[in-house]
């Protein structure tokens, strides 16, 4: 089985970009910087936010502490426990529009980094000044996704690459919450399962698609409030 996770508001219970913004003096960004979100891409906006936080003196240790403190979503520790016990049955990857440094810091702190075969996220590193810098992941032609990342493209290419390595998955499971998680889940087949977080954009979009074009969304949809529901579903499946 291939299990695909999103990060923000899926593995962790916050948007990690918002957690970082909270570290600005007074917990808020200056108004001009906030307003610059409307011009250009979100990825470019976050590049400006990180530069501003660098100007305020935030360095590696500060960012590491912020990411490590972000709470896991409800039931996520139990789901990871289940996956560690059954790790030989699942190949696990993470596709996220956050940034590599933040994700790896959190996964290591939670003790689950080794569960992931591969992490796809925007490249981030510390420059000579000690500022955290961010780049776009790739470019693509998808009209539904932000310019820096289409998760459908990443997932499709990953499956193709694994097929070349003669790894075929019996099923794909996708755990996410956002509109950018809906895009890849559209490519899932009737053997696969989409786990959208209840009440979040991915969940609403699967419901709307089902209403407008019944049968267009092929995967089984299993909404979750606690990740223990995902663990229970997978456990039942293994019993069969």
Automatic annotation (TrEMBL):
<feature type="binding site">
    <location>
        <position position="97"/>
    </location>
    <ligand>
        <name>substrate</name>
    </ligand>
</feature>
<dbReference type="InterPro" id="IPR023214">
    <property type="entry name" value="HAD_sf"/>
</dbReference>
<keyword id="KW-0495">Mineral balance</keyword>
<dbReference type="GO" id="GO:0035630">
    <property type="term" value="P:bone mineralization involved in bone maturation"/>
</dbReference>
<feature type="binding site">
    <location>
        <position position="6"/>
    </location>
    <ligand>
        <name>Mg(2+)</name>
    </ligand>
</feature>
<dbReference type="GO" id="GO:1903561">
    <property type="term" value="C:extracellular vesicle"/>
</dbReference>
<dbReference type="InterPro" id="IPR006384">
    <property type="entry name" value="HAD_hydro_PyrdxlP_Pase-like"/>
</dbReference>
<dbReference type="InterPro" id="IPR036412">
    <property type="entry name" value="HAD-like_sf"/>
</dbReference>
<dbReference type="GO" id="GO:0030500">
    <property type="term" value="P:regulation of bone mineralization"/>
</dbReference>
<feature type="active site" description="Nucleophile">
    <location>
        <position position="6"/>
    </location>
</feature>
<feature type="binding site">
    <location>
        <position position="177"/>
    </location>
    <ligand>
        <name>Mg(2+)</name>
    </ligand>
</feature>
<feature type="binding site">
    <location>
        <position position="17"/>
    </location>
    <ligand>
        <name>substrate</name>
    </ligand>
</feature>
<dbReference type="GO" id="GO:0046872">
    <property type="term" value="F:metal ion binding"/>
</dbReference>
<feature type="active site" description="Proton donor">
    <location>
        <position position="8"/>
    </location>
</feature>
<protein>
    <recommendedName>
        <fullName>Phosphoethanolamine/phosphocholine phosphatase</fullName>
        <ecNumber>3.1.3.75</ecNumber>
    </recommendedName>
</protein>
<dbReference type="GO" id="GO:0016791">
    <property type="term" value="F:phosphatase activity"/>
</dbReference>
<keyword id="KW-0460">Magnesium</keyword>
<comment type="similarity">
    <text>Belongs to the HAD-like hydrolase superfamily. PHOSPHO family.</text>
</comment>
<feature type="binding site">
    <location>
        <position position="8"/>
    </location>
    <ligand>
        <name>Mg(2+)</name>
    </ligand>
</feature>
<dbReference type="Pfam" id="PF06888">
    <property type="entry name" value="Put_Phosphatase"/>
</dbReference>
<dbReference type="InterPro" id="IPR016965">
    <property type="entry name" value="Pase_PHOSPHO-typ"/>
</dbReference>
<keyword id="KW-0378">Hydrolase</keyword>
<keyword id="KW-0479">Metal-binding</keyword>
